[in-house]
Amino acid sequence: MGAGKKYKIDEKDPKLIAFNPANVRDETEEEIEADESFQRLKDSVCKFGVLVPLVVKPHKRGDKEFILIDGERRLRAAVATNQKTVPVHILTESESGNEMLYAFQIHMLRKEWSKTAQARSLVKIVNDIKKELGKKQEKELFDTVQEETGYNETSLKDLFRVLRYVDMNGEILDEIDNPKSNVKFSHLVQLEASFVEQIEKTFPEIIKQYGIETIRNKLLDKVRAEVISSTREPINELLPLFIHSKTAEQKQYLKKLIIDFLDNESKTPEDIFRSFELKFPINKEDLLKLVKEAEKKMEELESIMNNLQYTQFSIYKRLKDSLAKKIDSLIKVLKKAVRKMK
Fold it and tell me: How far apart are CA 101 and CA 242, in angstroms?
Protein backbone atom coordinates (compact mmCIF):
# COMPACT_ATOMS: atom_id res chain seq x y z
CA MET A 1 0.00 0.00 0.00
CA GLY A 2 2.40 2.64 -1.17
CA ALA A 3 1.60 6.29 -0.57
CA GLY A 4 -0.44 7.87 -3.34
CA LYS A 5 -1.04 4.55 -5.15
CA LYS A 6 -4.17 4.54 -7.35
CA TYR A 7 -6.57 1.62 -7.14
CA LYS A 8 -9.04 0.54 -9.80
CA ILE A 9 -12.62 0.57 -8.55
CA ASP A 10 -15.21 -1.76 -10.08
CA GLU A 11 -18.97 -2.03 -9.53
CA LYS A 12 -20.22 -5.49 -8.50
CA ASP A 13 -23.49 -7.05 -7.39
CA PRO A 14 -23.24 -7.39 -3.55
CA LYS A 15 -24.89 -10.82 -3.82
CA LEU A 16 -21.74 -12.09 -5.56
CA ILE A 17 -19.62 -11.30 -2.47
CA ALA A 18 -19.27 -13.87 0.35
CA PHE A 19 -18.89 -12.66 3.92
CA ASN A 20 -15.54 -13.52 5.49
CA PRO A 21 -15.86 -15.67 8.65
CA ALA A 22 -12.52 -14.26 9.84
CA ASN A 23 -13.58 -10.61 9.73
CA VAL A 24 -11.07 -8.27 11.35
CA ARG A 25 -13.54 -6.54 13.68
CA ASP A 26 -14.70 -9.94 14.98
CA GLU A 27 -18.35 -8.89 15.18
CA THR A 28 -21.28 -11.29 14.83
CA GLU A 29 -24.23 -10.52 12.57
CA GLU A 30 -26.41 -10.10 15.69
CA GLU A 31 -23.99 -7.55 17.22
CA ILE A 32 -23.90 -5.56 13.98
CA GLU A 33 -27.71 -5.56 13.62
CA ALA A 34 -28.14 -4.42 17.25
CA ASP A 35 -25.79 -1.45 16.82
CA GLU A 36 -27.54 1.91 16.35
CA SER A 37 -24.73 3.16 14.11
CA PHE A 38 -25.45 0.27 11.70
CA GLN A 39 -29.08 1.39 11.44
CA ARG A 40 -27.84 4.87 10.50
CA LEU A 41 -25.47 3.31 7.95
CA LYS A 42 -28.38 1.44 6.34
CA ASP A 43 -30.34 4.70 6.08
CA SER A 44 -27.35 6.36 4.41
CA VAL A 45 -26.77 3.47 1.99
CA CYS A 46 -30.46 3.43 1.11
CA LYS A 47 -30.31 7.13 0.17
CA PHE A 48 -26.84 7.46 -1.33
CA GLY A 49 -25.53 3.94 -1.96
CA VAL A 50 -22.17 2.63 -0.67
CA LEU A 51 -19.69 5.52 -0.88
CA VAL A 52 -16.51 3.84 0.43
CA PRO A 53 -15.40 0.90 -1.76
CA LEU A 54 -15.34 -2.62 -0.34
CA VAL A 55 -12.13 -4.63 -0.60
CA VAL A 56 -12.56 -8.16 -1.99
CA LYS A 57 -10.55 -10.92 -3.60
CA PRO A 58 -11.56 -13.56 -6.18
CA HIS A 59 -13.29 -16.53 -4.56
CA LYS A 60 -15.10 -18.88 -6.93
CA ARG A 61 -17.43 -20.92 -4.75
CA GLY A 62 -21.09 -21.64 -5.51
CA ASP A 63 -22.82 -18.46 -6.63
CA LYS A 64 -20.13 -16.26 -5.08
CA GLU A 65 -17.33 -14.76 -7.15
CA PHE A 66 -15.56 -12.83 -4.38
CA ILE A 67 -14.87 -12.99 -0.65
CA LEU A 68 -14.88 -9.87 1.48
CA ILE A 69 -11.62 -8.56 2.94
CA ASP A 70 -12.85 -5.20 4.25
CA GLY A 71 -16.33 -3.64 4.53
CA GLU A 72 -18.50 -6.07 6.53
CA ARG A 73 -21.01 -3.44 7.66
CA ARG A 74 -21.20 -1.72 4.25
CA LEU A 75 -21.85 -5.04 2.53
CA ARG A 76 -24.56 -6.00 5.03
CA ALA A 77 -26.17 -2.57 4.62
CA ALA A 78 -26.06 -2.93 0.81
CA VAL A 79 -27.70 -6.37 0.92
CA ALA A 80 -30.33 -5.20 3.45
CA THR A 81 -31.27 -2.20 1.26
CA ASN A 82 -31.25 -4.21 -2.02
CA GLN A 83 -28.43 -2.29 -3.70
CA LYS A 84 -27.86 -3.55 -7.24
CA THR A 85 -24.13 -2.74 -7.23
CA VAL A 86 -21.44 -1.65 -4.79
CA PRO A 87 -18.00 -0.15 -5.48
CA VAL A 88 -15.19 -2.66 -4.89
CA HIS A 89 -11.43 -2.82 -5.11
CA ILE A 90 -10.46 -6.35 -6.20
CA LEU A 91 -7.11 -7.41 -4.74
CA THR A 92 -4.52 -8.58 -7.22
CA GLU A 93 -2.77 -11.91 -6.73
CA SER A 94 0.23 -10.23 -5.06
CA GLU A 95 -2.02 -8.17 -2.76
CA SER A 96 -4.06 -11.26 -1.84
CA GLY A 97 -0.96 -12.87 -0.38
CA ASN A 98 -0.92 -10.17 2.31
CA GLU A 99 -4.66 -9.67 2.74
CA MET A 100 -4.54 -9.58 6.55
CA LEU A 101 -1.91 -6.85 6.50
CA TYR A 102 -3.93 -5.03 3.87
CA ALA A 103 -7.09 -5.09 6.02
CA PHE A 104 -5.04 -4.24 9.13
CA GLN A 105 -3.59 -1.11 7.52
CA ILE A 106 -7.03 -0.01 6.35
CA HIS A 107 -8.49 -0.39 9.84
CA MET A 108 -5.59 1.37 11.55
CA LEU A 109 -6.90 4.61 10.06
CA ARG A 110 -10.32 4.19 11.66
CA LYS A 111 -11.06 5.57 15.10
CA GLU A 112 -13.89 3.10 15.73
CA TRP A 113 -11.59 0.09 15.49
CA SER A 114 -11.27 -1.11 19.09
CA LYS A 115 -8.05 -2.15 20.81
CA THR A 116 -9.29 -5.72 21.14
CA ALA A 117 -10.11 -5.86 17.42
CA GLN A 118 -6.57 -4.67 16.72
CA ALA A 119 -5.19 -7.35 19.04
CA ARG A 120 -7.25 -10.08 17.36
CA SER A 121 -5.99 -9.04 13.95
CA LEU A 122 -2.43 -8.76 15.21
CA VAL A 123 -2.54 -12.34 16.55
CA LYS A 124 -3.08 -13.60 13.00
CA ILE A 125 -0.40 -11.33 11.55
CA VAL A 126 2.14 -12.31 14.22
CA ASN A 127 1.44 -16.01 13.66
CA ASP A 128 1.94 -15.61 9.90
CA ILE A 129 5.21 -13.74 10.42
CA LYS A 130 6.37 -16.35 12.95
CA LYS A 131 5.92 -19.03 10.27
CA GLU A 132 8.16 -17.07 7.92
CA LEU A 133 10.80 -16.13 10.51
CA GLY A 134 10.90 -19.44 12.36
CA LYS A 135 11.97 -19.36 16.00
CA LYS A 136 13.19 -15.81 16.57
CA GLN A 137 13.63 -13.50 19.54
CA GLU A 138 10.66 -11.26 20.40
CA LYS A 139 12.70 -8.16 19.48
CA GLU A 140 13.22 -9.38 15.90
CA LEU A 141 9.56 -10.39 15.68
CA PHE A 142 8.53 -6.97 17.04
CA ASP A 143 10.69 -5.13 14.48
CA THR A 144 9.28 -7.19 11.61
CA VAL A 145 5.66 -6.66 12.69
CA GLN A 146 6.29 -2.93 13.11
CA GLU A 147 7.79 -2.70 9.63
CA GLU A 148 4.91 -4.66 8.09
CA THR A 149 2.06 -2.87 9.88
CA GLY A 150 3.43 0.66 10.23
CA TYR A 151 2.48 0.75 13.93
CA ASN A 152 4.23 3.28 16.17
CA GLU A 153 6.53 1.71 18.78
CA THR A 154 4.52 2.63 21.89
CA SER A 155 1.19 1.32 20.58
CA LEU A 156 2.75 -1.88 19.27
CA LYS A 157 4.52 -2.52 22.59
CA ASP A 158 1.16 -2.32 24.37
CA LEU A 159 -0.41 -4.73 21.88
CA PHE A 160 2.47 -7.17 22.29
CA ARG A 161 1.96 -7.03 26.07
CA VAL A 162 -1.69 -7.99 25.60
CA LEU A 163 -0.75 -10.78 23.18
CA ARG A 164 1.22 -12.48 25.99
CA TYR A 165 -2.09 -12.90 27.83
CA VAL A 166 -3.80 -14.04 24.61
CA ASP A 167 -1.11 -16.72 24.15
CA MET A 168 -1.88 -17.89 27.69
CA ASN A 169 -5.68 -17.63 27.43
CA GLY A 170 -7.22 -17.45 23.97
CA GLU A 171 -10.54 -16.22 25.41
CA ILE A 172 -9.13 -13.21 27.26
CA LEU A 173 -10.13 -10.78 24.47
CA ASP A 174 -13.73 -12.04 24.67
CA GLU A 175 -13.59 -11.39 28.41
CA ILE A 176 -12.37 -7.84 27.82
CA ASP A 177 -15.18 -7.21 25.32
CA ASN A 178 -17.81 -8.42 27.80
CA PRO A 179 -19.31 -5.27 29.40
CA LYS A 180 -19.90 -7.22 32.64
CA SER A 181 -16.22 -8.13 32.96
CA ASN A 182 -13.88 -6.21 35.27
CA VAL A 183 -10.89 -6.96 33.03
CA LYS A 184 -9.99 -4.11 30.66
CA PHE A 185 -7.44 -3.88 27.86
CA SER A 186 -5.45 -1.30 29.83
CA HIS A 187 -5.34 -3.66 32.84
CA LEU A 188 -3.28 -6.12 30.82
CA VAL A 189 -0.98 -3.40 29.50
CA GLN A 190 -0.27 -1.94 32.94
CA LEU A 191 0.01 -5.28 34.78
CA GLU A 192 2.61 -6.35 32.27
CA ALA A 193 4.55 -3.08 31.97
CA SER A 194 4.45 -1.97 35.61
CA PHE A 195 4.72 -5.32 37.38
CA VAL A 196 5.53 -8.47 35.40
CA GLU A 197 8.28 -6.89 33.30
CA GLN A 198 9.74 -5.26 36.41
CA ILE A 199 9.85 -8.60 38.25
CA GLU A 200 11.56 -10.18 35.22
CA LYS A 201 14.30 -7.54 35.42
CA THR A 202 14.66 -7.25 39.20
CA PHE A 203 13.63 -10.63 40.64
CA PRO A 204 14.00 -13.38 38.01
CA GLU A 205 14.05 -15.86 40.88
CA ILE A 206 10.37 -15.02 41.57
CA ILE A 207 9.54 -15.84 37.94
CA LYS A 208 11.38 -19.13 38.34
CA GLN A 209 9.58 -19.86 41.62
CA TYR A 210 6.02 -19.27 40.40
CA GLY A 211 6.18 -19.44 36.61
CA ILE A 212 5.23 -16.38 34.57
CA GLU A 213 1.80 -17.73 33.58
CA THR A 214 0.91 -18.36 37.22
CA ILE A 215 1.86 -14.78 38.09
CA ARG A 216 -0.28 -13.41 35.27
CA ASN A 217 -3.22 -15.58 36.30
CA LYS A 218 -2.91 -14.42 39.93
CA LEU A 219 -2.99 -10.80 38.72
CA LEU A 220 -6.03 -11.46 36.54
CA ASP A 221 -7.84 -13.06 39.47
CA LYS A 222 -7.17 -9.92 41.54
CA VAL A 223 -8.62 -7.79 38.74
CA ARG A 224 -11.68 -10.03 38.42
CA ALA A 225 -12.25 -9.80 42.18
CA GLU A 226 -11.66 -6.00 42.07
CA VAL A 227 -8.71 -6.32 44.45
CA ILE A 228 -7.03 -4.43 41.63
CA SER A 229 -9.79 -2.13 40.43
CA SER A 230 -8.30 0.89 38.70
CA THR A 231 -6.21 0.32 35.58
CA ARG A 232 -3.83 2.97 36.97
CA GLU A 233 -3.07 1.07 40.19
CA PRO A 234 -0.09 -0.88 38.82
CA ILE A 235 1.64 2.26 37.54
CA ASN A 236 0.73 4.35 40.61
CA GLU A 237 1.29 1.79 43.38
CA LEU A 238 3.59 -0.93 42.02
CA LEU A 239 6.00 0.64 39.53
CA PRO A 240 7.34 3.25 42.04
CA LEU A 241 8.45 0.42 44.35
CA PHE A 242 10.79 -0.99 41.70
CA ILE A 243 12.05 2.49 40.79
CA HIS A 244 12.86 3.43 44.39
CA SER A 245 14.34 0.10 45.53
CA LYS A 246 18.03 0.94 45.28
CA THR A 247 19.74 -0.73 48.22
CA ALA A 248 20.02 -4.45 48.93
CA GLU A 249 17.86 -3.97 52.03
CA GLN A 250 15.11 -2.24 50.03
CA LYS A 251 15.16 -4.90 47.32
CA GLN A 252 15.01 -7.71 49.84
CA TYR A 253 12.03 -6.11 51.56
CA LEU A 254 10.28 -5.47 48.24
CA LYS A 255 10.80 -9.10 47.25
CA LYS A 256 9.12 -10.17 50.49
CA LEU A 257 6.19 -7.82 49.80
CA ILE A 258 5.77 -9.10 46.22
CA ILE A 259 5.65 -12.72 47.37
CA ASP A 260 3.09 -11.77 50.03
CA PHE A 261 1.09 -9.90 47.34
CA LEU A 262 1.09 -12.94 45.04
CA ASP A 263 0.26 -15.43 47.80
CA ASN A 264 -2.53 -13.40 49.40
CA GLU A 265 -5.65 -13.06 47.22
CA SER A 266 -6.94 -10.03 49.13
CA LYS A 267 -3.65 -8.09 49.22
CA THR A 268 -3.95 -4.89 47.15
CA PRO A 269 -1.26 -2.82 45.37
CA GLU A 270 -1.97 -0.06 47.91
CA ASP A 271 -1.23 -2.51 50.74
CA ILE A 272 2.27 -3.29 49.55
CA PHE A 273 2.95 0.33 48.58
CA ARG A 274 1.93 1.39 52.08
CA SER A 275 4.10 -1.26 53.71
CA PHE A 276 7.12 -0.22 51.67
CA GLU A 277 6.44 3.48 52.27
CA LEU A 278 6.31 2.96 56.04
CA LYS A 279 9.72 1.33 56.05
CA PHE A 280 11.35 3.37 53.26
CA PRO A 281 9.66 6.77 52.69
CA ILE A 282 9.80 7.51 48.99
CA ASN A 283 9.82 11.34 49.13
CA LYS A 284 9.61 14.34 51.46
CA GLU A 285 5.80 14.28 51.44
CA ASP A 286 5.84 10.63 52.52
CA LEU A 287 8.32 11.44 55.28
CA LEU A 288 6.20 14.33 56.53
CA LYS A 289 3.14 12.09 56.54
CA LEU A 290 5.02 9.46 58.57
CA VAL A 291 6.19 12.05 61.12
CA LYS A 292 2.63 13.32 61.57
CA GLU A 293 1.37 9.76 61.97
CA ALA A 294 4.12 8.94 64.50
CA GLU A 295 3.24 12.03 66.54
CA LYS A 296 -0.44 11.10 66.50
CA LYS A 297 0.26 7.48 67.54
CA MET A 298 2.48 8.62 70.41
CA GLU A 299 -0.20 11.02 71.64
CA GLU A 300 -2.76 8.21 71.51
CA LEU A 301 -0.40 5.86 73.32
CA GLU A 302 0.31 8.47 75.99
CA SER A 303 -3.41 8.91 76.57
CA ILE A 304 -3.98 5.15 76.82
CA MET A 305 -1.13 4.66 79.30
CA ASN A 306 -2.33 7.57 81.46
CA ASN A 307 -5.83 6.11 81.62
CA LEU A 308 -4.81 2.53 82.35
CA GLN A 309 -5.89 1.43 85.85
CA TYR A 310 -2.69 -0.20 87.05
CA THR A 311 -4.08 -1.34 90.41
CA GLN A 312 -6.75 -3.46 88.72
CA PHE A 313 -4.50 -4.38 85.79
CA SER A 314 -1.75 -5.78 88.06
CA ILE A 315 -3.86 -8.80 89.10
CA TYR A 316 -3.90 -10.09 85.51
CA LYS A 317 -0.32 -11.37 85.40
CA ARG A 318 -0.34 -12.66 81.80
CA LEU A 319 -1.73 -9.39 80.42
CA LYS A 320 0.68 -7.36 82.56
CA ASP A 321 3.73 -9.37 81.44
CA SER A 322 2.71 -9.21 77.79
CA LEU A 323 2.26 -5.43 77.88
CA ALA A 324 5.49 -4.92 79.82
CA LYS A 325 7.38 -6.90 77.17
CA LYS A 326 5.93 -4.81 74.33
CA ILE A 327 6.75 -1.58 76.21
CA ASP A 328 10.37 -2.70 76.69
CA SER A 329 10.61 -3.43 72.98
CA LEU A 330 9.08 -0.07 72.10
CA ILE A 331 11.50 1.76 74.45
CA LYS A 332 14.46 0.22 72.62
CA VAL A 333 13.05 1.34 69.24
CA LEU A 334 12.40 4.85 70.55
CA LYS A 335 15.88 5.15 72.09
CA LYS A 336 17.42 4.06 68.78
CA ALA A 337 15.31 6.63 66.92
CA VAL A 338 16.33 9.40 69.33
CA ARG A 339 20.04 8.58 68.88
CA LYS A 340 19.66 8.79 65.09
CA MET A 341 17.99 12.19 65.36
CA LYS A 342 20.75 13.72 67.51
Answer: 38
